[in-house]
UniProtKB/TrEMBL annotation:
Keywords: Lyase. It comes from the Bacteria. Coiled coil: none annotated. Belongs to the enoyl-CoA hydratase/isomerase family. The lineage of its organism: Bacteria, Pseudomonadati, Pseudomonadota, Alphaproteobacteria, Hyphomicrobiales. It comes from Reyranella aquatilis. This is Enoyl-CoA hydratase-related protein. InterPro entries: ClpP/crotonase-like_dom_sf, Enoyl-CoA_hyd/isom_CS, Enoyl-CoA_hydra/iso, Enoyl-CoA_hydra_C. Transmembrane segments: none annotated.
Length: 264
């Protein structure tokens, strides 16, 4: 698969689409071209029916994403217009990842800091190696965080842990992150790849319409801006029951075999 920039890698491995932050020499710190590439890559993943799950990760073994690439700020965020553009493309990329119709997994090894943590929180599942480190240094930089980002964090870890993360601005180890609900699973470093691969294989064998309906229902039930759209959610459930996959699931159960779902 082709990426608009070498700093973002797009790969397809069987039913898995891999979105890789590729700046290991800077701990995969994000830059303008990386934010611009994310919607392009995800659009391609969405159009491919063979891709059932998207893995988001960082190149190398030192970091998932360590935050923004401060070294580019003088050129990329030097004027009000540049700042507005940078914020716009960052928000667009984050929204695109959050709204991805397919299950998303953040595969985390090493540093997952600031904007990197925000990226991981936009994924459905976070699987971290035991050597991972998490944190939000905003209070050391005087930055403000939007309500939407804090809502996602607070929904995961609760108000007290969210305040601790922001008030202390310290790094948390993987077990601390797991204890507060920041990550879904913590595995030994040597087992991270095999664990994520097995997880993707398990998800890839399940019914895409069912997973999509569940994802969108949870999204609606936790939305910040008003009441959930229950009509939309009911339509998604009806789509599942009207699908060929539902027939295949019932038939496979009766025939005591593994179902083969098509996403339709």
């Amino acid at each position: 698969m082709i990426s608009p920039t070498p700093n973002m890698i797009a790969e397809k491995v069987g039913p898995v689409g891999r979105l890789i932050f590729n700046k290991p020499q800077k701990h995969n710190a994000t830059s303008t071209d990386m934010w611009e590439a994310i919607p392009v890559i995800l659009d391609e993943f969405e159009r491919d029916p063979e891709i059932r799950v998207v893995v988001v990760t960082g190149a190398g073994d030192k970091a998932f994403v360590s935050g923004a690439d401060i070294s580019e700020f003088e050129k990329a965020r030097n004027t009000p217009e540049q700042v507005a553009y940078y914020d716009k493309i960052g928000e667009l990329a984050n929204k695109r990842l959050n709204k991805c119709s397919k299950p998303t997994i953040a595969r985390i090894r090493g540093y997952c800091i600031g904007g990197g943590l925000a990226v991981s929180l936009l994924c459905d599942i976070r699987i971290a190696s035991e050597n991972s480190r998490f944190g939000v240094p905003a209070a050391r930089l005087g930055l403000g965080y939007r309500a939407s980002g804090l809502k996602i964090l607070t929904d995961l870890v609760g108000p007290s842990h969210a305040k601790e993360i922001f008030f202390t601005a310290r790094h948390f180890n993987a077990q601390e992150a797991f204890g507060m609900g920041l990550v879904t699973r913590v595995v030994p470093d040597a087992e991270l790849d095999s664990y994520v691969d097995n997880y993707c294989r398990m998800i890839g064998e399940n019914a895409p319409l069912t997973m999509h309906a569940a994802k969108r229902t949870i999204e609606e039930l936790t939305r910040l801006d008003g009441e959930p759209d229950f009509a939309r959610l009911n339509a998604l459930v009806k789509q599942c029951f009207d699908s060929e996959d539902y027939v295949e699931g019932r038939t496979a159960f009766m025939e005591k075999r593994k179902p083969v779902f098509k996403g339709r």
